[in-house]
Structure formats: structure tokens, C-alpha cells
Amino acid sequence: MKYGHGMKIFPLLAFSVLLSLRGAFAAEKPAPEADKPAMAVDKPAQAADKPVLTDDKPAQATVDTAATQSADTSGDPFAWGDFTWLNGNDRRHSTPLDTKYFTGSLMVDVNYNYSFNHPVDHTNVGSTATFREGEIDLSFVGFGGDFHYGNTRGRLFLQLGTRATGVPRNDNSAYRGQFDLFDAYRYISEAYGGYHWDTWHGINLDVGIFMSYVGLMSYANCENWSYQPSYTSDNTPWFFHGARLQTFPSDRLKVELWLINGWQTYGMFNEQPGMGYQVLYRPQEWVSLVFNGYVGWDTPAMAGRRRVHSDNSVLIRYRHEPGHFISKAAFSITGDLGFESGDGVTPFGGAGGPAQNFISAMFYHRLWFTDEQFGWTFGGGFMHNPGRYLVLTPTGVAGQVFTENPGDKFDAWDFSTTLQYMPNDFVTWLVELVHREANVPYFAGSGGVTSPNGYNPPLGDPTNFTPDLVKHETRVILALMVRF
Q: Do residues 206 and 66 lie in contact, with contact meaning Cβ atoms separated by under 8 Å?
């Protein structure tokens, strides 16, 4: 299996991991009381239950952590440690919008995305984090929060901005049947009702739309170490629609089951729902382990085609020295293996049809400086998808210059370096350099992907415009993220 020039970065990443592991235990020191978080990372009795990223978001943190409480020794899940260092997790130690019955939140994410390809139509494709190029873009505005009264819980978090339409456009299940599911749901990033039982260290049952747990990085960019996610995160779901059962056998372990309509779908493509699980384990404050699995039937008009996906992450904080110039250091490693089988495709090729699988990985390394006001991250990853079944389709060019047929190979890799300035818990300034490449033309070139008169090719263009796709892109991202 070859990935072109992308494989050259992985010996460097592997070497960085070995250096990170060297002396991991010797450098790690317990945090003094002053460094303990002011809020519990996982509070099942209220709305907080993000796993790997906050109380209830494991693989891709939910948009917001739920109720904020003072860390104590009551046995609440994950409340015993400070997990604000995690990639994809809420980094706040407190929130000013917490009340007895409602914990509110407001997020604003604005970016300026400059591509050296200079697309004439100012369109960025193949990404769920950036959509406009050469313009100031209001990417995400979210507001809402968590309701908690007794053992009853609920959450409503609304979304506006380019992500509100850029992310759901990859879900075509809304076209099946009557009623306008796109307009009904696209401005809701997360909404559910639920109930909590005081069994073990908590059991939660929630029904509605919630953030997915695949791909480590959070839907809220203010929770991530970098802005543009690698392919492992960017090409896997951001939301699930259905029900989840969260169980906390101990204050260090979470086991969760899902019954959902499908793989980032508002409705079901076929006649069977998707099912999945997540296991989150944090035996110590400096380590977090996340294991996710999914099985579903998500290909339109292919009721016999089954999808299986496995997503796993390890996060290690190997340095914790408050007061030093480099106060913290950590890294995250994520690997995904998935496939489809049946109705003309096989997982790895054979008599039943061409190979249809998804193999990807990503690695990020993070350093915190000067009392954690600055953070520097570098990393990247690769994706191998010989059938393109999970590849983000470049806007407006599906079936024209970029096909998605079984047997159409797609290999890609990326690398990024990110500097963040965080003067307090509620604001992040960011500058990032990201380079991405693919084995086929995929990224927006100088000619853009929409014609001069504004038509999208699939809608019919009288000028016979052909989208300009190229094999690589280099971009600089500037962003301001505010969160209360």
C-alpha cells in the first residue's frame, strides 16, 4: 500500500512518539490542588457526561460540556482529575453561565482561510471546518445549554454559520420520503431529553440528536489542539440521531451503547438502524483511552450492504510541570479501520466485488507555554479509501469530475502546525498552516468549483464550466474562538 510523499512524515512522527514516551513517568508529577479543575468533567446526574472530550463526548467532543460543578470526591465520573488538557475536550475550568437548573453556553467561531491555490470563487472543498477562502467567514455560532432538575435532563444547542449547512449537506437521507428534514434539523447541533439513575456511578438514557463519538476531535474547534482536522476526524460523523445509554460502572470508566438512524444521517437509508458502542477509560489523570465501534446499513438503495467501523484513540500527557516555561506536553494517536460488505463490494477485494474499506490514522503533539497561555501543536495523518465511500465530496462536482464508485481509489495525507494564544479560558486566537495532498485531483484549484455566473454544475450550467480540481493545497487559517 502506497501513499506517495505522505509516508515520509510518519517516520518523523514515530520518532516524536518515542521521544515523548521516554521518561513519561519520570516527568509526570501530580498536579497541586491549585491546578484541580473548578468543574467536574463528567457529571451524569446533570447534563455533563462527555467522555474523551468532556462529559459526554468521547471521540468527538460534544459542542459543549454540560453542568459545571466543583471537583470533589463524591465519586462522580471523571470529577477526580483535571482533563482540560485533552485534545477535543472542554479546556475551561469554570463557566460564568451556570445556575441551579440551567447551564448556558455561547460559542462564536470566526476564521479567515487563505489558500495558495487562490480559487476564483472563494470556495474551499473537502473540509468540514472551513468552507470559504480569502474571506472572513462566520463559521459557527452556537447558543443554548443544559437543563437539569432532579434526575431529569435535557439539552438544546442551536447552530448558525457556514457549518450549519456545510456539515449536513453530506447527509442525503433527508431526500428519502416526505417532509423537509434538512430545514427541520440543520440549525440544531445537539438536542435531547433524558433521565439519570443513581446506579453505580450513574446511568443516563438520552434520546435526540447528539455529537458523534468517532474521530477524537470535537465539533467545537475551541476544544481542539488544531483547527483543520485530519481525514480520520473530518471524514467520519459529527452527529448521531437516535438514542444512547451511558453507564458509569466506576468513576474512571464509561460504557455507552447507541441505537441511531445511521452514519451521520437524519433519517434511515434502508430498513435497519445503526448500532454502536463507546468505551472510555481514564485510569490516571495523564492518560485517556477511547474505543468506538459501529455497524449499520447506510448505502442508498443497497439494503444488503453492511458498514462496520472501528475507531480508537490513546491520549498521553507525559509532562506536567506548573510554573515552568513548558508547563505541559502531550500527544494523541487515533487509528480507524472500517469496511463495507455486500451488494457488489467486499471489505478487501475478491469475487464479491472491489475492495471497500477505510484505513486511516492521525497523530498530534502538543506543548503548553508560559502558564498555558500559548499552545503549539503539530501533526497530521493519512487516509486510504479504495472505494471513496466515506470521502467528502467536493461541493458541486459529484459525478462530474470526482466520482464515488466502488473501485475508485482515494489516498490522501496531511500535515499541520498550529499556534494558539489563550489569555483566559474563554477566548482562543489561532494561526495554522496546513498542507494536504491526494492521489487524484480533489482540492479547489485557481479556477474554482463554480462557474463565473454562479451555477453549480449539477444544477445545469449554460457556460459548460468544468470545475478545477488539483491534487494538493496549502492553506493558512486565522481564527478567533470565544466561548462562555
A: no
Predicted pLDDT of residue 51: 32
Beta-bridge partners for 146:
103, 155
Residues with Cβ within 8 Å of 78's Cβ and at least 6 positions away in sequence, in order, are: 40, 41, 42, 51, 55, 251, 252, 254, 282
> Cell 502506497 sits at which residue?
2
3-state secondary structure of 306: strand
Give every CB contact of residue 71 below 8 A, 6+ residues apart in sequence. 36, 37, 38, 39, 40, 79, 80, 81, 82
Rounded CA separation 427/26 (Å): 33
Burial pattern 64-93, b for ≥16 Cβ within 10 A else e, equals: bbbbbbebeeeebbbbbbbbbbbbbbbbbe
SS3 40: coil
User: Which grid coordinates are listed for 43?
Assistant: 457529571
CB 45 within 8 A of CB 66: no
Taking the CB of residue 426, how many other CB atoms lie within 10 A of it?
A: 17
The DSSP H or E segment spanning 184 is helix 181-185
Question: What CATH fold (topology level) applies to the domain 4-483?
Answer: Porin (2.40.160)
pLDDT, mean of each 10-residue run, the chain (484 residues): 39 41 42 38 35 36 38 70 95 91 96 96 91 95 95 96 83 76 88 95 96 92 96 94 96 96 88 94 97 93 92 97 95 97 92 94 97 96 95 67 86 98 97 97 90 60 76 98 96
Q: Where are the domains of the chain?
A: 4-483
Query: Do the Cβ atoms of 437 and 412 come closer than 8 Å?
Result: yes
Quick one: pLDDT at residue 397? 54
Residue 173 zone, left/alpha/beta (φ > 0; ψ -120 to 50; rest): alpha
Please tell me the predicted confidence (pLDDT) of residue 226. 97
